[in-house]
Amino acid sequence: MKVRFLVAALAALAVSGIASAQTYVQGHTRSDGTYVQGHYRSAPNSTKLDNYSTQGNRNPYTNERGTVNPYRPSSSNPTGSPYNQPRRRSSYP
User: Fold this and answer.
1) Close Cβ partners of 29 (under 8 Å, ≥ 6 residues apart)
2) Is 44 domain-assigned?
């Protein structure tokens, strides 16, 4: 009996962890008129390493492998850090 309870408790914890790591995006129309269907995405946080589209990860809804290199520098991330950079405050008075 104790083993069943333990298995049920662990299963509940696993499901709650998955549910908190994702968020639903409502379907919407972009400014150019393109409709984007509603979908799940990984919840926003301070890292790019756990996004569904990141290399090494897999989207649990579509089963697609991630292809985005989180270490690649870009105009919004010139250091190539996989961690989201805080916005810098302007030096205006």
Assistant:
1) 35, 36
2) yes
